[in-house]
Write a structure and sequence with these properties.
Number of strands: 9
Strand content: 25-35%
Order of helices and strands: EHEEHEEHHHEHHEHEEH
Largest sheet: 6 strands, mixed
Helix content: 25-40%
GO cellular component, one term: membrane
Pfam family, one: ABC_tran
Family: Belongs to the ABC transporter superfamily.
CATH class: Alpha Beta
CATH topology: Rossmann fold
CATH superfamily: P-loop containing nucleotide triphosphate hydrolases
Bound molecules: adenosine-5'-triphosphate
InterPro entries: AAA+_ATPase, ABC_transporter-like_ATP-bd, ABC_transporter-like_CS, ABC_transpr_TagH-like, Bact_Polysacc_Export_ATP-bd, P-loop_NTPase
Distance between the termini: 23 Å
GO molecular function: ABC-type transporter activity; ATP binding; ATP hydrolysis activity
CATH architecture: 3-Layer(aba) Sandwich
Length: 261
């Protein structure tokens, strides 16, 4: 378990036995076949409504995050990492259990509701406003955001619509907008994996700064190196359950033993 010496530390996120269930409509599949009909009848018998399938993505996860921590979320594909982050951000309801947060958590890329038909320039303003920055603050930080993103390194791209950006460029701009503000709780889902190495180094440095500025950072990544370079604590999820919670080295070593990477 993570460090038990909690005296003087300020909790920012408390997850208490969190369960998240997705409901998928029209997931009957193979409408005409006898087995599909049979499974529909059996499901109805268990009280599930017709054509609705449940996916229990997070199962009884509990942890407390403290101010100043950078916490990595690891686990194989479909283990529930993004789902857990979306629940912490308040974007998904819990089926059971509760999430308590101090301040408004920002999930990178969602809170900054970027529009693909608008230029990068307009999106910086829009994303800033969506995160609660004033027009004055945005004006002050505009150039810093554009420079950090590196969008204009190869020409004047910031005045082009975002739909013309590569996925890496769009991810860089989203990260830059989100990172321009000091967040109480900042959650980053795979952002570092999309940029090139130069951008990754820049964003890792910024994550460390955000931590020092007293926020809590959550980072979902499949790059063990990014997690090692930025996080001091790691939560390992598997099949929706919290398998391990502890210091980065300890958890990553166990994860690497298990996954062979
Ligand atoms: N919108 C959705 N509707 C139904 N099921 C979903 C939805 N989003 C995710 N799931 C399911 O929830 C489970 C957890 O998915 P989630 O995206 O949280 O995993 P993850 O650990 O972030 O995966 P990855 O590493 O591949 O990004 C999976 O079984 C997935 O199929």
């Amino acid at each position: 378990m993570a460090d038990d010496n909690t005296s003087g530390r300020v909790p920012t996120v408390i997850a208490d036995d969190v369960h998240i269930v997705y409901r998928v409509n029209g997931a009957g599949g193979g409408k005409g076949s006898a087995t599909a009909a049979l499974s529909r009848i059996l499901r109805r018998g268990k009280g599930e409504s017709r054509g609705v399938r449940k996916v229990h993505a997070v199962r009884g996860v509990s942890f407390t995050a403290y101010r100043g921590e950078a916490i990595g979320l690891i686990g194989t594909n479909g283990s529930g990492k993004s789902t857990l982050l979306r629940a912490i951000a308040g974007l998904l309801p819990t089926e059971h259990g509760k999430v308590y947060t101090d301040g408004q958590p920002s999930l990178l890329g969602v809170n900054a509701a970027l529009m693909s038909d608008l230029t990068g320039e307009r999106n910086v303003v829009l994303g800033g406003l969506a995160m609660g920055m004033s027009r004055e603050e945005i004006r002050e930080r505009y150039q810093g955001i554009v420079d950090f993103s590196g969008i204009n390194e190869k020409g004047d791209f910031i005045t082009l619509p975002m739909r013309t950006y590569s996925s890496g460029m769009a991810a860089r701009l989203r990260f830059s907008i989100a990172a321009a503000k000091n967040h109480d709780v900042l959650m980053i889902d795979e952002a570092l994996a999309t940029g090139d190495r130069k951008f990754q180094i820049r964003s890792e440095k910024r994550i460390r700064e955000l931590r020092k500025e007293a926020g809590t950072v959550f980072l979902v990544s499949h790059s063990n190196k990014s997690i090692r370079d930025t996080c001091d604590r790691v939560l390992w999820l598997e099949k929706g359950e919290l398998l391990m919670d502890g210091p980065t080295d300890e958890v990553l070593k166990a994860y690497e033993r298990e996954t062979g990477k």
